[in-house]
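note to self — DONT lose this again. spent like an hour looking for the file last time. sequence + predicted structure for the chain T wanted, 179 res
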Amino acid sequence: MAATPELAEKLVVLGKITTVYGVQGWVKVHSFTEPMDNLLQYRQWRLRRDGETRQVEIVKIRVHSNSIVAQIKGVDDREVAREFAGFEILLPADQLPKLAVDEYYWHQLIGLKVTNQEGQLLGQVHSLQETGANDVMLVKPCSGSLDGRERMLPYLPEQFVLNIDLAAGEMLVDWDADF
């Protein structure tokens, strides 16, 4: 069975349509990009919700307060726009800007096995979140893990994260498993 184009490419979630904005069919968007206005440069969106996907073109987009508002081509009615609430905004990973050496997108870190300097497998990166002071990784147990504990570990390259090997699917951290 041949892979469909959507399955063959790695898609990254850049944000989510949350609700309608105004009466002319605009939608309000929560951007997951950093900074949030990085989403403004993408005008072809692939949308996904509950297994349904749609391809849309954005004709107007701007920052409004602490979110982004956008107008989808062909949508000029509030009730039609409401149908888009809850859709994730996706982009093929290969369309993201190239990063400097030793910089990573969060989606690249998800699923990496996390090992400490003693060679103990702590688990796999399940998610990341901003906390203000620094980003934090939720590491959940996996097959071969030291124990069944979930851990919140700081994502501090060079201070805490000693090495990331994407090809091997591994991350080495400076962490005492008993901590």
